[in-house]
Amino acid sequence: MLSTNRREALQFLIAAGGMAGLPAIAGAAGEDPVFAAYQRNAEQDPWTLIVRDAPADGFSGDAQLIHGQMPSGLSGTLYRNGPGRFSRQGWRYRHWFDGDGFIQSWQLANGRVSHRGQFTQTDKWVEEEAAGRFLRPGFGSLPPGASGLNGPDDMNVANTSVMLVGDELLALWEGGSAWSLDPETLESRGPRRWGQGLDGVPFSAHPKVEPQTGIVWNFGQDAFNDRLVIWKIGPDGQLLDAGLIPDIPGGMVHDFVITERSLVFLVGSYRYQGRADTFNGSFGFEAGTPMLAVALDKNDWSQRRTWELDPGFLFHFGGAWESADGEIRLDAALSDDARMVSQGAQMIMRGEPEGEFGSHTQHRLVTLGAGGRARSEVLGPDYIEFPQVDPRFVGRRRRQTWHIAWSEADERGATRIERRDLETGTQDGFDHGEHVFVEEPLFLPSERGAEGEGWVIHTALNARDRRTELHVFDALRLSDGPLASWQLPYACPFGFHGCWRQA
Ligand SMILES: [Fe+2]
Which of 101, 233, 440, 468 could cross-link with 120 by S-S, CB 3.0 to 4.6 Å? Predict the structure, then answer.
């Protein structure tokens, strides 16, 4: 259980670090050029629906089967989370990651698919809905008249991912608390309180679940003070331990991987450079600063190994495993720059394709050698994102990674779903064509235990039809095309991440 010392240290974190204490600076009033640019581009290109404002009272509807039939044995709920509100009173956020959290559920039962989407009732959302304007700074935006913050949860938008633990659905952000929701109704229950003194402590959007034990590992970052928080949670949702890890450089650490023995972090070269008027504005890409890999011993977090890699940046890992002699291998979507977060996500807000500022992430395999030597190899030339693994093989040696991929034909977004076999290097994939923009795929295991036996499910925007779709594939036969596809009678804003609850 959490020691008193650790609790005090974490309380200190809330007071001194995170995003608390950002200054209140009034932005310029008058016509907003970002709002105007989005309106203009949205009239020209329905691709811009990926960053539309969802209606305040959400969406509800049945999806229509447009292809194939529901695979037998596939029954459950796909939850998705992402930003869904970007503008108020003619002023639009500057950064994609600022939008208020919009949670969606796709229920697959008895051959039918029903959908709901609604805003998570964070404190920020409730107060801004009542006021009719933005009141708080965002990750990368400073709305006119935004006020200062007393703690990270004052600006918590709960918009990044979603997970099930115990009987709770948690809408995850990364700068503050997870937000607890009812998994049936999606109603908000408030910030998740893990224990005394832990309110508002950063809880990242990429927890990892040990398949053997159900133990949930997560981290949080205090980038302003070069520290990480480690969280260890039981399968029932009870906190087992938490602690503060000092001397981790202030990079934008978004995801991590576990092996059977280690917690592994890559600190990219997008580093904290001093407090600016937004969180994202406080970071810059340092082309001469190597990425740092850090592995902490799961059983003794004070034991660490470190490696240096070429300068770069990443959001997302596939998975990792570790050999008996301590060599760690991991795969990730890695780029040589951080243009997506520093420029691309701002272009999307204006309704402009990211083009060359978009995801330059390639699928790479990184080896962290037992002797302190590290190397990274590019597995394919394509730009990819959202690498996924079979959850039964988290932390263990495995072969398969599923991801989305960009087509050269369309610079607005990814249109392909792919699988790469890490041992043979072979690829299998499906391209939906130039008007269907794909979101994160999730691997859903079937009852058999072999790696890759199951389905891949993903949502997508059909820009031609102005509707959101759901597609299910045989996970090992993507090139056969979807087994089944459904379409909603409306278009939802893009989400970032999701999770699955098998019925
Ligand atoms: Fe993410």
Answer: 101
How far is 17 from 222, CA to CA, in rounded Å?
6
Domain positions in the chain are: 4-23+35-502
Integer CA distances (angstroms), 410 to 44, 199, 212, in order = 16, 44, 41
Ligand 1 geometric centre to CA of 496 (Å): 7
364: Cβ–Cβ under 8 A, 6 or more apart, which residues? Answer: 331, 332, 333, 334, 376, 377, 378, 379
Contacts of 289 (CB under 8 A, 6+ apart): 269, 271, 311
d(CA 436, CA 375): 36
Q: How far is the CA of 97 from the centre of ligand 1 (A)?
A: 10
Q: Tell how far the Cα of 387 is from the centroid of ligand 1, in angstroms.
A: 10
Positions in the chain short of pLDDT 50: 1-28
| Fold that domain 4-23+35-502 belongs to in CATH | Methylamine Dehydrogenase; Chain H (2.130.10)
DSSP for residue 342: I
Distance CA 114, CA 55 (A): 18
pLDDT of residue 30: 66
The CA 316 to ligand 1 mean position distance, Å, reads 6
The H-or-E segment that residue 469 falls in is strand 467-474
